[in-house]
Amino acid sequence: MPLLGLLPWRAWAALLSQLLRPPCASCTGAVRCQSQVAEAVLTSQLKAHQEKPNFIIKIPKGTRDLSPQHMVVREKILDLVISCFKRHGAKGMDTPAFELKEILTEKYGEDSGLMYDLKDQGGELLSLRYDLTVPFARYLAMNKVKKMKRYHVGKVWRRESPTIVQGRYREFCQCDFDIAGQFDPMIPDAECLKIMCEILSGLQLGDFLIKVNDRRIVDGMFAACGVPESKFRAICSSIDKLDKMAWKDVRHEMVAKKGLAPEVADRIGDYVQCHGGVSLVEQMFQDPRLSQNKQALEGLGDLKLLFEYLTLFGIAEKISFDLSLARGLDYYTGVIYEAVLLQTPTQAGEEPLNVGSVAAGGRYDGLVGMFDPKGHKVPCVGLSIGVERIFYIVEQRMKTKGEKVRTTETQVFVATPQKNFLQERLKLITELWDAGIKAEMLYKNNPKLLTQLHYCESTGIPLVVIIGEQELKEGVIKIRSVASREEVAIKRENLVAEIQNRLSES
Amino acid sequence: MAERAALEELVKLQGERVRGLKQQKASAELIEEEVGKLLKLKAQLGPDESKQKFVLKTPKGTRDYSPRQMAVREKVFDVIIRCFKRHGAEVIDTPVFELKETLMGKYGEDSKLIYDLKDQGGELLSLRYDLTVPFARYLAMNKLTNIKRYHIAKVYRRDNPAMTRGRYREFYQCDFDIAGNFDPMIPDAECLKIMCEILSSLQIGDFLVKVNDRRILDGMFAICGVSDSKFRTICSSVDKLDKVSWEEVKNEMAVLLQTPAQAGEEPLGVGSVAAGGRYDGLVGMFDPKGRKVPCVGLSIGVERIFSIVEQRLEALEEKVRTTETQVLVASAQKKLLEERLKLVSELWDAGIKAELLYKKNPKLLNQLQYCEEAGIPLVAIIGEQELKDGVIKLRSVTSREEQEDLKTAQNRDFNFYYGYFIDYYWQKWPDTTPFTYKALGA
After folding, report:
1. ipTM of this predicted complex?
2. In the prediction, which pLDDT does B169 show?
3. Region of residue A362 (left: phi > 0; alpha: psi -120 to 50; beta: else)
4. Which residue in A has a C-alpha nearest to residue B237's C-alpha?
5. Is the pLDDT of residue A398 over 90?
6. Mean pLDDT calculated for residue range A212-227
7. Which residues of B touch A102 (CB under 8 A)?
8. What GO molecular-function term can you cite, just one (chain B) (predicted)?
């Protein structure tokens, strides 16, 4: 019996009837039974719904279908992102949608409240993946991989309260790029930033800025200012709000709600309001407090080297050393970065789209070691493109401009003005398909010419080929440009070449 | 360290004591007391960090896709999607889970194979079992009466993976469907045309598409005089295969044939790689008024095709490239990192796929070896002399035998003329992005 596991359901049903066909008497059962079962199921289904007061079809909260219009925009964006990853020599990989729960909670202890768990159905305890980084670390540890440059585009799931208005969903796509391995310092880190710049420039979303900091500088700064170590994470999350809240509000939160001494808060304030280029790095080297802190000095040293490389990459002016950057996830061990879009003057009339950062990442040297049985470390640095937010921005812009996109790529439509020409249309369209030309026709025996032309206009098909009695006699096909309505007769045998010519010119 | 060793020894002794007491069937209170002491000692020891806390694996029935498998997958999807687009299909996507009630009652006995999500206080959800029910739900929800769409995505079934090798719980489906009321058989014929185009383009061997019609089967059974009561018995005994409650009219199946070793042999069916049919009653299940939207479609068994393609590549001993890198930027001497970074950046900005080693002073031989392993066709070499002359050496990566000769010639000047290599590059890879050259320091 052939392998069944990989067959879609239709194939199984078909295979069933195939297997049962001889002898005749026994093979009737399954298929006929299907219809009876189908009837029974259908009636029971309808009955159940008839009892319901409101029969509304829904999809789960925080998720959405992607219509053809959405998909076209999405595919263009993902194409750009992936070709950038490939340009930098990354290999693609994929992991399952769910992982063993214990593997995910290993890292996300506190955040596991936001994970989707699968029901305990007697097997392993599973949860839907929360990001693409933990699966990556698991993959590296599992396969004992020491060096890898990979990208991974896939969906992740978080049970956060969705804010559809800002494009925040419970199921969303992430585009990750990571370089795992022990290498000479800051070269891979610099390449990650180069990639972020290439993608954000390529997407043409306007001016952007990448904030850069270092986990050791954050920790060193806190220590130098007198923040008690037990309050590090709490203060970190307050500082993280500086992109949304004013300093005085953040200061208030730290002092009043998190019990930080006011003079310590003020000292922090001196630092976190600083941002600049490599000159700020130099300045911090000389800072009386920071220069006493070993951790901070390490971080500053790495940032200095990073800026050298970024200058060689030609992107230094897009990068800002920002002391207020203190990203949420605590598995970063070195450089951290976050890209934000800047409002350009031309967008003044638009509603400000506050979507936060559009890409972020950093160095995380300890994660793989947490999964490796012997604790072997594999240093990693990477980035994640917030493609859903970008997607949202692009959609909003298109809506404002009233742009419409084609949802198919059909190049040629096969039409006829006469009745009883279905056969000719079928023959003709087959010639086009076999030559690799994207072609369509109406599924009607005798469609009206006007209906066919309207179809072309509404779906954006640029060319029509028309065959009728006259053309058949003369051995020609009429090619018509939908836009200009110009028509020309071409010999049947030259049709494909003529079409390919026209398509390559446009 | 010594403290820990002493503690471990204490734990061991106490453990033996407890075991001894249990063997002697000592009193329950005594055992409990000693067990308490043991637990206290263990707690002092702290967590055993050397023991693995969990097993490193993917869930049962699922797998990672390695870069090699991804490369194969991408090629296969490319062929399939190009064909769907050639026939004017739009593409959609739906969430990985649906409301449990959406999937309930659609799969008959197979409903027990559906993955449910845990009740975490919100809606009851289940992972999608196929792409057809979500499609019907999408049509009904958006009140669509006609659409030609394809959908490629993973689906989830809690099958017993031990049964047949290669049966996964998470696997790709590749569906193409035409929904709508049209003149008979035209869309159905197009579905078969698409199947043939795809299977031909994939070049996985000779194939045959078997076609039948459920009304013919029903009629045949009736004529043969099969009683109604027999149908159900036969049905339930092979129930695993009977998934479909709304597969109403036709069944089609594409079967791959093995090329016969000798002439005159019957071609052996190696298994189904695609299937489909017409199903007119599905959307009506979702529509409150039971309005029907006739549908016909097909599903490509891509997982099957992936493994066939992989097997073929292995048989042909063809190496699959897992990256698309065209140029490696290398340095012949030490202290040329800056120049490499500048050059690779130029290449990226020109859209050329390029890499460099993340080492300040890599050996040239290592860089050439990297190219050979990854299948990178070109290497751009920066050297001190060339820098002074304002040129870059562009070399096509050679086989290992030729590299052996180069090892001895390493200290000699490479006398490859730049012009020659640009010509060579164009001839060999005419469809790649143009390589722009700019002299360093010019």
Report:
1. 0.85
2. 94
3. left
4. A30
5. no
6. 93
7. 53-54
8. RNA binding
The amino acid occupying position B200 is S
- Kindly report whether the peptide bond that precedes residue B430 is cis, defined as omega within 30 degrees of 0: no
Give the CATH number of the domain where residue B410 resides.
3.40.50.800
Of the candidate ranges A109-113, A271-275, A434-438, B329-333, the one whose mean pLDDT is the lowest: A109-113
DSSP per residue, B63-82: --B-HHHHHHHHHHHHHHHH
A contact residues 81-120, partner B, Cβ 8 Å cutoff? 86-100, 102-103, 106, 116-120
CB interface of B with A, residues 49-108, below 8 Å: 49, 52-60, 62-67, 70-71, 73-74, 85-99, 102, 105-106, 108
Domain limits for position B186 = 67-207+273-315
Helix (H, G, I), strand (E, B) or coil at B261: coil
Q: Residue B8 is encoded by which pair of tokens?
A: 């471990």
Tell me whether residue B131 is annotated as binding.
Answer: yes
pLDDT-derived band of residue A45, with 50, 70 and 90 as boundaries?
A: very low
Question: Can you state the percent helix, strand and coil of chain A, rounding each to 5?
Answer: 50, 15, 35
Three-class DSSP category at B226:
coil
Annotated binding residue B400? no
Mind listing the domains of chain A with CATH numbers? 68-343+354-401 (3.30.930.10), 412-505 (3.40.50.800)
Joined together, the tokens standing for residue B365 give 């031989």
pTM of the model: 0.82
Chain A nearest-CA distance from B356, in A, is 9
* Angle in degrees, 0-180, between the axes of helices B67-86 and B186-202, rounded to the nearest 10: 150
Contact (CB<8Å) A17/B217: yes
Size of interface A-B (CB pairs under 8 A): 400
- Please judge whether B74 and A194 are an interchain contact, meaning their C-beta atoms are less than 8 angstroms apart: no
B178: which chain A residues are within 8 Å (Cβ-Cβ)?
Answer: 443
* B248 pLDDT higher than 90: no
In B, minimum Cα distance to A435 occurs at: B86
Give the percent of chain A with pLDDT over 90: 70
Number of domains in chain B: 3
For residue B135, the chain A residue with the least C-alpha distance is A65
